[in-house]
Amino acid sequence: MAHPITDRDRDKVRGLHAEGKSRNEIARSIGRSAATVSKIAREEGLTFAGGARVAAATEARRADAAARREQLADEALDGALGQVARTAGAESARDARDHATAARALTEVHARVAELARHSSNGSSGGSMLDRLADALLGPPAGGDHEGG
After folding, report:
1. CA dist 32 to 18, 28, 47, 102, Å?
2. Which of 41, 104, 113, 138 could bridge to 55 as Cys pair (CB 3.0-4.6 Å)?
């Protein structure tokens, strides 16, 4: 059975809402369900209408993450090439092996990040599940005729 809503719950929801927290952030913070937070908000006359603002912020985060992935892939590849060059000039077989191992690891990082970037751009990887969920809830990032809520 669900716990009854208390005045303390209402106070916390009002305070966190005033701080600009989302419904889900508030729910996690107070240990109640999102549905309970929605019910309290409705009773208190509070809304979580920030759809366009949230969509713009989400798209900005996506673009920033894509740029960081690209930078990470480039740096990993540059590092791998540097390790390969060091292998040729290594003073011992052990040093050469260590540089080759580092080059292989950096090449793998490059490949994984590049693969993630490819999947994130077409929405087909598990890593982009949140992006697909956001698109389903908020509509495509380019906008559209969705009514906010």
Report:
1. 18, 7, 17, 47
2. 138
